[in-house]
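Review form for a predicted model. The reviewer records the input and the model, then writes brief findings.
Reviewer: anonymous (R2)
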Amino acid sequence: MRQAFNHVRARSQFGRPLSSYDTVRQRLVRMHLSLTSARELLHATARQADARSLDHHRSSLTKLHVSTEFNRFCQELPDVYGGYALLPETGAMALVADAVASRYYSGTSDMQTKIIAEGLGL
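Model under review:
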């Protein structure tokens, strides 16, 4: 996130820093929201695990939310970086690949949804 912020502050388009454009700022806010919500849920779930009160429903909910938000975050990267997203030094494409793969770690998102639904009594 910090690297994306630095990029939009340093890069100019039409004589203005990218960070001055509302569409870029909106993307960065969405990215920040994705990271913040995923981090907060993950920390709350970790506290439950530490207290030995974690159930499958909650762990599946956390896994699904974190991977969904990671993918949402990464969808914004190419629009923030433009063509620079393809350069290895930005790390953007590596993050995109990791985000896609995160949907399959420790069970697919579909399997997590099934566990959550069962936990809701559906």
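Findings: The radius of gyration is 17 Å.
Further findings: The domain at 2-119 is CATH 1.20.140.10 (Butyryl-CoA Dehydrogenase, subunit A; domain 3).
Recommendation: see findings above.
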